[in-house]
Amino acid sequence: MRVVNIAGQMAAGGTQSLAMSLAAELRKRGHEAQTWFLYLRSPTYIGQEGVRVLLHHPAKGKIYLLRLLMRLVQQLRSFRPDAVVTFGLYANIPGQMGAFVAGVPVRIASQQNPSWIHSRLARYLDWTIGSLGVYTANIAASHSVYESFNGYPKPYLKRLRVIHTGLVFSKSFLEPAEAREKFALPKQVRLVVNVGRLAEQKNQELLLQALPFVPEVHLAIAGDGKLRQTLVQLAVRLGVQDRVHLLGEVPPAAIPDLLRAGNLFAFPSRWEGFSVAVLEAMHAGLPVIASEIPPLREIIGSADGGPAGLLLPADDARAWALAIQRLLRDDRLRTALSLRAQQQAAFFGLKSMVDGYEQCIRDAIA
Questions:
Q1: Residue 303 pLDDT > 60, yes or no?
Q2: Is the pTM higher than 0.90?
Q3: Fewer CB in a 10 Å sphere around the end CB: N or C, the chain?
Q4: Which whole-number Å values give the CA distances from 208 to 110, 219, 232, 246, in the listed order?
Q5: Which residue has the higher pLDDT, 202 or 57?
Q6: What is the signed CA dihedral for 16, 17, 18, 19, rounded to 10 degrees?
Q7: pLDDT tier at 59 (50, 70, 90 boundaries)?
Q8: What is the pLDDT of residue 302?
């Protein structure tokens, strides 16, 4: 079976990692699977097996969008896949339309974020092509994402199902001191780690605002984005610039080493559909503090014996500071959350996710 996974931009993000992981696991199962990116933002996966980039810059304007669709249709007709799987709304719309025009028999969209975060035009296009049968099937990454589509037409909803995101986590072989040396981080401090784009959604400003209340704590953030300079200026204004380490975009393969360097993981995101970053931290056994939003409750809040992390409002810096202090001072709580996190993370494995996608493709072919 030939499968093409289509993601939007090539960059070091959870959605991109998901597309790459699905393709790699399908190849292990004997399928011919590739991952195509609509355009290049950073060369994260250049040179890796089965990877293509359609455009080397974002497709802006009608001419560029038309060029993108034409190139996509041409390459799909040349490769002749049995199925196309697209990841995220801004890959679903051009990817599924291109696959439909190219005559690909099985077209599976995946909804990685709640419907309400997208523009009205994007929601309308998704609503329309998802109801008219352009999507053979439509996958929601979590129950909270699924529920965000309540009120969509019945023809849309009958194709929508939940397949939880999963991953295989490769634990770091480094000692904590070695991991800190790798990222030029101070060795004799308490270190909070965050992974995510420097964007309003990820809300790293809240972590900086918490730092004045925890003077012994340093913060390391892996990610880049348009708010980098804003965070730098905020750190200076708060007088915490010496304790904030902006690492830039860290390759996905190096994330386990970064997590090994930390004492705990903090993720104050304002919204998510699912979070690969939180799931990786849980696999690594880091105690997690995360924002109290439905998808993170879904990941963290149902471990046997209690929640696998602390959930807090995404707008209360003082509460986050108190939670950081509590975790760093309470060895028993930190150990308990670490064990629960690893147990809970096991429910979100790559095998079960790929089983779901593979069965979805087989059902559509049948």
A1: no
A2: no
A3: C
A4: 34, 8, 10, 11
A5: 202
A6: 50
A7: low
A8: 63
